[in-house]
Specification:
455 residues; alpha+beta; Beta-Lactamase; Helix Hairpins; Heat Shock Protein 90; five-stranded mixed sheet; four-stranded antiparallel sheet; 11 strands; 57% helix; rod-shaped
Length: 455
């Protein structure tokens, strides 16, 4: 069975893709944490490698020298043992070893050495002592560097006895692991503190820029001054220039719409005056209705084109705001129920937001007998549900109703007899606040319009 060349590499490639996806999932997502990781991780890794290499070679060198000295002491004891009468030499050597060399020795009866112990994997002292005993003494020996952590036991076979030597582990091995750990922890802590203080000052301007952009998207006028590194200041100045261009475009559009509105209203006023001077008849009444229809359509077109331009955001009490809408609906002969939960103080464009909710409520009242408004505010969003018990809108057509000038043919026809701009204006206002409007099935059996804007 032959495998094509691309197929042979497909499995390793998929493994690498899976590995990078897993790595991306566990790595921090925030810029602050990622920047800290980029700064600290290489420094800590480099420091660990350099310190380990340096300290390991240093410990190995010192351990070899200490093992050499300890072996030389043992070799001197063996030479003195052979040079002096044995009974006198044993007592003197035991005393000299204890007082001068700080090791305990004992002459045991001649017997086979214990079996060799398993060698530890990472024992520098075991290898160093074994090599030195073979080189300097050259006699059969037994070595235990693991049994008692603070001592080393060495047994060397002589012609008529077994020399047992017990020495402190520090006499043959220099281990400064605690110093290494303290050095690593201390320097890493200092590095983290310095990096944290540095990165906080570097990332704070980015967060301020993001907050200013978010506030501007919600229709507010944030105070923002570029700060930080050169690239961040350049982004800040670009944001300010973009905001100026958008505000200038809004001002120009508002001025143009005001001029068009003034001119068209002047012409409609002339029509009304001319009709008022004519004798009342069926024809003049039809013309009067046409003029009123033209004026209403003109106001709708201008409202859609103007959007929420020219109005600043302000903090309002949303509970009182909804209660005013309820009273306005009741004056038009409709029964509307409201419910609100959470902090009622919300920053929105009052007139524009009122037009948004009024269009949704009016659309519901045009096709239903009962309308309910349920609002809630959490830490991030203000959510308002407008429910009705009307015929609803098919799910496939719910996106179409937000398109300007679209009129449904079904029994549920928003902005009935009008311009088809009611829901389009509402959606435009919601999005100018950084939010959105969605349509779904209502618990009352009709349509639910949900307005969700960030706070």
């Amino acid at each position: 069975m032959s495998i094509s060349f691309p197929a042979a590499f497909e499995q390793p490639r998929s493994w690498w893709r899976g590995f990078w996806r897993w790595l991306a999932a566990i790595l921090p997502k925030g810029l602050y944490a990622r920047s800290a990781l980029i700064v600290i991780a290489p420094m800590v890794i480099l420091q660990c490698v350099l310190t380990y290499v340096f300290m390991e070679r240093h410990w190995q060198l010192v351990t070899n020298r200490l093992s050499t000295v300890l072996t030389q002491d043992i070799a001197a004891i063996i030479d003195l043992y052979h040079a002096e009468p044995q009974d006198m030499a044993r007592n003197a050597l035991v005393r000299i070893a204890q007082e001068r060399l700080k090791i305990d020795i004992e002459f045991l009866p001649l017997a086979p050495l214990p079996p060799a112990l398993p060698k530890p994997f990472f024992s520098i002292v075991d290898a160093a002592l074994s090599n030195e005993i073979r080189r300097q003494i050259g006699r059969p020996f037994w070595l235990d560097t693991v049994g008692r952590s603070t001592f080393i036991e060495i047994r060397i076979q002589l012609e008529d006895a077994i020399l047992r030597v017990v020495a402190y582990r520090s006499a043959a091995y220099a281990s400064n692991s605690h110093i290494f750990l303290l050095w690593m922890v201390g320097t890493s802590f200092v590095l983290i503190v310095v990096a944290t203080a540095f990165l906080r000052n570097q990332i704070k301007p980015i967060l301020l820029l993001a907050g200013a952009a978010e506030a501007f998207g919600k229709g507010r006028d944030p105070e923002f001054r570029p700060r930080g590194a050169r690239e961040v200041r350049q982004a800040g100045y670009a944001f300010i220039e973009m905001r100026r261009r958008i505000e200038r475009a809004f001002e120009q559009r508002t001025a143009m719409l005001n001029g068009v509105s003034h001119d068209l209203r002047t012409i409609l006023t002339r029509f009304k005056l001319s009709l008022a001077m004519l004798e009342e008849s069926d024809e003049t009444q039809d013309l009067q209705r046409d003029v009123e229809e033209m004026q209403r359509m003109l106001e709708a077109y201008l409202a859609f084109a103007r959007g929420a331009a020219g109005e600043s955001a302000a903090e309002i009490d949303m509970h009182d705001f909804l209660d005013d809408l309820r009273l306005a609906a009741e004056r038009r002969g409709h029964d509307v129920k409201i419910a609100f939960s959470g902090d009622p103080v919300v920053a929105v464009r009052p007139d524009a937001f009122k037009r948004c909710l009024s269009n949704l409520i009016g659309n519901a009242q045009s096709h239903a007998k009962h309308v309910s408004i349920e609002a809630s505010r959490d830490e991030r969003f203000l959510t308002i549900h407008v429910d009705d018990d009307g015929p609803g809108i098919p799910p496939a057509r719910r996106e179409d109703v937000f398109r300007p000038f679209v009129r449904l043919d079904e029994s549920r026809n928003q902005d009935l007899g009008g311009t088809g701009l009611g829901l389009a204006i509402a959606l435009d206002i919601a999005r100018s606040h950084g939010g959105d409007i969605t349509l779904s099935d209502s618990p009352l059996g009709g349509l639910r319009a949900t307005v969700r804007v960030p706070v």
